[in-house]
Design goal:
The protein has 328 residues and is an alpha/beta fold. It has helices spanning 16-26, 41-50, 58-64, 77-86, 101-113, 128-136, 162-177, 276-290, 298-316; strands at residues 7-12, 31-37, 54-55, 67-70, 90-94, 118-121, 142-150, 182-189, 195-202, 207-213, 220-227, 231-235, 240-254, 257-267, 322-323. InterPro entries: Gfo/Idh/MocA-like_OxRdtase_C, Gfo/Idh/MocA-like_OxRdtase_N, Gfo/Idh/MocA_Oxidoreductases, NAD(P)-bd_dom_sf.
Length: 328
């Protein structure tokens, strides 16, 4: 902490996403952005100058901060997070948590031993529309959840598969909405193409269907929850929620003709707009400052990674059905 009580923070990896972490930290009165680090020194200097901080090597940065965002390619997450934790630094690591669940379990144990905060950056948890959905769910007897995360190929470098890069967002949301385990997982993909659909049966009876794609010509980020009382749709992009309640079917006479008409009631609950990344970082800072558990824990990140692996295995072996016989 600084003399005025601000948390000393840094960012490791200032590519397209890491630069936004630096921006949010720099604009917060609750923290002091001590510096940024990147293997591309020119990039680190550019981002540091933009946000009034310093470009530092990783070792120097970790010795100077209380908490750090790790925003590097997934294959480097485990080693850099371990380095940070061993330097007694709390960590916000972007999703996916790690590429090896065993390494993730080791990192969780290390953070616990050192009483450090370890948060995984599942950013959609902090989307205001998802927050509004969480408020509605207690009123519902949920039957099914459908998620679609579609779009054209991205122009940024990304070595993660479509399940690990895109579908993982909705897997995390599905797991976070219900106190349930996954009983069975089915999945299939288009041969050679980044387009996958997975079906998950939860042990509470809820059926989840998720599709992720990088080959569609329309960007879609939508979630729908079907219950006995209503159907709730969430648009992640517009941060909007609609509640579709009971239809009133009937026949009406129009110009001498008898026509069938079905009317429904659509409610639009108020959604407090806001940048999900800012909410995520504010939650992390609060967790470190107050010594409380992160809103998205390492265990949460691990559960999502384990499901990613199961779905990827099912896509590779279309005849496989992955049955879960115990809780994760």
């Amino acid at each position: 902490m600084t003399d005025d009580g601000a948390l000393r923070v840094g960012v490791i990896g200032v590519g397209s996403m890491g630069a936004h972490h630096a921006r949010v930290y720099a604009s917060s009165a609750a923290v002091d952005l001590v510096g940024v680090a990147d293997t591309d020194w020119d990039r680190a200097k550019e981002i540091a100058e933009k946000h009034g901080t310093r470009a530092l090597n990783r070792g120097t940065l970790l010795q100077a901060v209380d908490a750090v965002s790790v925003v590097v390619p997934t294959q480097f997450h485990a080693s850099i997070v371990r380095e940070a934790l061993e330097a007694d630094t709390s960590v916000l690591v972007e999703k996916p948590f790690v590429d090896d669940p065993a390494a993730g379990r080791e990192l969780i144990a290390l953070a616990d031993r050192r009483d450090l905060r370890l948060q995984v950056g599942h950013i959609e948890r902090f989307n205001p529309a998802v927050r509004a959905l969480v408020d509605v769910l207690p009123e519902m007897d949920v039957l099914a959840v459908d998620a679609r995360r579609l779009g054209p190929p991205v122009d940024r470098e990304n070595t993660d598969g479509v399940v690990e890069d895109l579908m993982i967002h909705d897997l995390d949301i599905l797991l976070s909405l219900f106190d349930a385990e996954v009983d069975e997982t089915y999945a299939a993909g288009i041969d050679g193409e980044p387009h996958v659909t997975a079906t998950l049966q939860l042990d509470n009876g809820v059926l989840g269907t998720l599709t992720a794609s990088r080959i569609t010509h329309q960007k879609v980020r939508e979630l729908a929850v079907t219950g006995r009382e209503c159907r709730v749709t969430v648009n992640y992009l517009t941060q909007s929620v609609k509640i579709h309640r009971h239809s009133l079917p009937g026949y009406v006479e129009s110009n001498g003709d008898l026509r069938y008409r079905s009317e429904s009631v659509v409610e639009r609950p108020q959604v407090n707009s806001g940048e999900p990344l800012r909410g995520e970082i504010e939650s992390f800072v609060s967790s470190v400052t107050e010594g409380t558990a992160p809103e998205v824990t390492g265990h949460d990140g691990l559960r999502a990674i384990e499901l990613v692996r199961e779905i990827s295995d099912a896509v590779d072996d279309p005849e496989a059905t992955i049955a879960q016989t115990g809780g994760r």
